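Morning, I've got a small favour to ask if you have a moment. Here's the protein in full, and shout if anything looks odd to you:
***
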Amino acid sequence: MFYTKRITWALRKARLPVVGSGLVLDVGSGGNPYTRSDILLDRLTGAEHRCGVSMMIDRPAVFGDASKMPFKDKVFDFVVASHILEHMSDPVSFLNELQRVGKSGYIETPNFLFERLFPYDIHCLEIALVNGVLHIHKKARPVEDDFIGSLDYLKHDSEWKKLFFEAPSFFHVRYYWNNEIKYLIHNPEISSKWIEKINSNSNEGEIKKNYLQGNLGWRKWGLWLLGFWHSYRRASRLKNFDLLKILACPECKGDLQMTKDYLVCNSCKVKYKAGQNPDFCNPL
């Protein structure tokens, strides 16, 4: 059975306020990148964070760290960061990077209620949106509340399960920003570095090329149709686009020079693997 709120939720990103031919970055694009995005940023490792879904690359993509993005300042008109903030052990660096490379954007995460009722050991933050401000609580361990976390409430209570399915917006944060991201870290003294061990032990995921790979359903077909339309528009929009012109060294933000096999920073001389999808995760 289809529910109006559920369908509205499924179509939520189709209505993001992207203006005309603006250049759009999808940070942590994963297996279902935002269909209107022009550039993807993610890492091959960390398939667990994508629920095992293969990373999708069907447009210009860069491998890199979202806390040290390999892009010049303010090169993107809009930046989408959907279901990535909750994975960041250093939210300040990540949010600062979003503001550095982008002029405006959209952040989506599970909210604190979801995290308490159904905690994920790959999430290290609990987040609430109050009066236009992101309130962030750093988790000292994967499950903050052993009692509630052990109940698996969203799975076993039929009423809560129904509410989550019919009205997922109640369990998520959706935040739009322009020029500035307003946020408050409530417990900055807490370290969430424990998640880095999970990251370092992550498997390298596979790559897929379109939305139809994997299990099919009405949402997949809808994404494919929307993606097909946007891919047509993107081809025209990026006809003369040069990815190198917007790239920068993630360590020092210096300009990069292309050699036969590498991208070399003119300032700190660090080398990175070039190719169709430049790799800034593993400096050479």
